[in-house]
Amino acid sequence: GLCIVSANQQLRRLLGWDVEGDVPEARYVTELMRPGLIESHQRWMDRASVENSLPGSLIHPLRNVEMRCKGGGFMRVNLSIGVFNKAAKLSAGNCLYYCLVSRCDVPRLSREDSQ
Question: Within the chain, where are the H helices?
Answer without folding.
Answer: 9-15, 38-51, 56-59, 111-114
